[in-house]
Automatic annotation (TrEMBL):
Transmembrane segments: 26-45
Name assigned to this protein: Uncharacterized protein
Key word Transmembrane present: yes
Taxonomy, superkingdom: Eukaryota
Keywords of this entry: Membrane, Transmembrane, Transmembrane helix
Amino acid composition bias (Basic residues), ranges on this chain: 73-87
Organism listed in the record: Cladophialophora chaetospira
Region (Disordered): 67-94
């Protein structure tokens, strides 16, 4: 009887140790999953914000370049083709 109770006590200690270790492992695994998920979400949202900041910087740079460079639109010197309205008027009056 004494040997049987000792065996049950040992089994209980071993089972308790195994369950405690499994619970610890489970906590560690869940914590790692949460940390990795949080890191991924942070990178996704941070990269989105970074993209917006990049687009704003590009827009500012383009505006600066537009202010520095002279207008490249052709100036009207009187040799340009007349507009369609003028062409249509001259055709209908003839």
């Amino acid at each position: 009887m004494d040997n049987a109770s000792l065996t049950l006590r040992e089994l209980f200690v071993v089972n308790h140790t195994i369950l405690t270790q499994l619970a610890w492992d489970f906590k560690v695994i869940i914590t790692l999953i949460c940390c990795v998920t949080a890191l991924i979400l942070w990178k996704v949202f941070d990269s989105d914000r970074g993209m917006q900041e990049f687009e704003i910087r590009v827009q500012i740079r383009l505006e600066e370049l537009e202010r520095r460079t002279p207008s490249t639109r052709p100036r009207r010197t009187g040799t340009a083709r007349p507009s369609r309205k003028i062409q249509q008027k001259t055709l209908t009056t003839r």
